Amino acid sequence: MNIYSQINSNKLKTWVIISLFIAFITTVVYVYGKSLGYGLSYAGIALIISGVMSFISYYYSDKIILGMSGAKLIKKSDNPELFRVVENLCIGAGLPMPKIYVIDDSAPNAFATGRDPKHAIVCVTTGILDKLNKTELEGVIAHELSHIKNFDIRVMSVVTILVGLVALLADMFMRSMWYGGSRKSRESNNSQSIFLFIGIILAILSPLIATIIQLAISRKREFLADASGALLTRYPEGLASALAKIAKDKEPLEAANNATAHLYIENPFKGKISGSWFANLFNTHPPIEERIKILRSM
Amino acid sequence: MNINLILIFVIVLLVLFAWFTYNSLATGKVRIKEALSGIDVQLKRRVDLVPNLIQTVKGYAKHEKQLLENVTKARSSLMNASTTQQKASSDNMLSSALKSLIAISESYPDLKASKNFLQLQEELSDIEAKIAYARQFYNTNVGAYNSTLVNFPGSIIGSMFGYKSEDFFETTDAERKNVKVSF
């Protein structure tokens, strides 16, 4: 598959993911509504809400994500060197210039977001600017620009918001069980208790399932972005040594949370390394050693 | 009846195949043109910068007539270049002429220390990097287009509609040797 068909498949994937999520959320809310004794109308409302949320996530996900991570927009005069690196690589990739944001955090990391190359954002931490040299920084920026060019940013940003929504709904359901208990309803207690049972299971499982889907998508995109980033700089060693430096740095990024972790160039939590398949299921990123090994063999 | 149906199906399939190939060639051509205009933007920036640079150098190093002339010559040949090949070779000429112009600043401490000169030098190396990336993007597009054109079925569709392979933005060895700058 060449890079252009990758882009097309990514655009298609966004729509598939959005529709699947709408269906998923509607089902989940239907079950929640049933089990709490609300009527069918709640499923309809859920459908509308998730539709609106998907719309919002498509157009505003970048702003939400930037707000969550406390990033600040910078001008060319603030960091001409960084701007030059981005400008040059954009010319090489044939992309319009993205907006550049900086997070004031000494942990080295970076991410890209937006809905298409014309509305793209590259965000770096002050830590990555301090700790990497120019060729390493070029490697990192090329990786992020590849995410933009491949439309990964659209897929991942939309997924971020929708996964967050599922988690929120499950949370709301559990809370309303504690506080509201089961409302008086005309339905028989028997069918309600079945729905209550399914509802609890769904509330536990749905954020988990949503997360596993999100992470599986995320890991695939990282390898592709590494490869096309290396193609852009023609110097895989730059990104490889940048990744090695980032991996060595044990400081976690405070601005990152569970919803945004997969956006970054490398897992911002610096969690323990574990080899079991179950732990790997929950990794936002492929193992960094593997990424470096592949880059160095290019 | 059945055979007719199969025949129609095969013809439709062939037409669709030809259509897609034709489209990918046409798109490739547009991408190449776009990439070339990307190079032109950067070349123009450099061409615009040169008079400024010459003025600055003249102020400190009047005797380097030959060098300054080389730069001016390369600049005007780049401005008049029309084909990709011409652009590539005169760009190379300008690059090396500028390189030697920058190099003589070593023997003129006042020039080297001049704030104006330093700024121009920085801008020049920035443009140089940008030209390199713009070239790379152009060549990537040309490579993709050319490989569609030599592979089946692009080779057939291409020759049917008169598509020819495009030149890479680079100079031939003979042209490279022509660029000699004396100090």
Total strand count of chain A, please?
4
Mean pLDDT of chain A: 79
CATH level-four homologous superfamily name of chain B: LemA-like domain
Number of domains of chain A: 1
What is the radius of gyration of chain B? 24 Å
> Would you tell me which CATH topology of chain B applies?
de novo design (two linked rop proteins)
CATH class of chain B: Mainly Alpha
The parts of chain B where pLDDT drops under 50 for at least 5 residues are none
Mean of residue pLDDT of chain B? 84
Percentage beta strand of chain B? under 5%
Q: Provide the spatial order of strands within the biggest beta sheet of chain A.
A: 1-2-4-3
Rg calculated over all Cα atoms of chain A: 21 Å
Please state the overall shape of chain A, judged from the principal axes of the Cα atoms: elongated
Distance between the termini of chain B: 83 Å
- So how many helices of chain A? 10
Tell me the major beta sheet of chain A: 4 strands, mixed
Structure overview:
The complex is a heterodimer of chains A (298) and B (183). In chain A, α1 (3-35) crosses α2 (41-69), α1 (3-35) packs antiparallel against α7 (189-233) and α3 packs across α5 (134-149). Chain A is of the alpha+beta class. The longest helix of chain A has 45 residues, at 189-233. In chain A, β3 and β4 (120-125) form a beta hairpin. Helices cover 66% and strands 6% of the residues of chain A. Chain A has a four-stranded mixed beta sheet with strand order 1-2-4-3, with helices on both faces. Chain B is rod-shaped. Chain B is built from seven helices and no strands. Chain B is an all-alpha fold. The model of chain B has no long low-confidence stretch (mean pLDDT 84). At the A-B interface, α3 of A face α1 and α5 of B.
List the keywords:
heterodimer, A: 298 residues, alpha+beta, four-stranded mixed sheet, 10 helices, 66% helix, 6% strand, elongated, B: mainly alpha, de novo design (two linked rop proteins), 7 helices
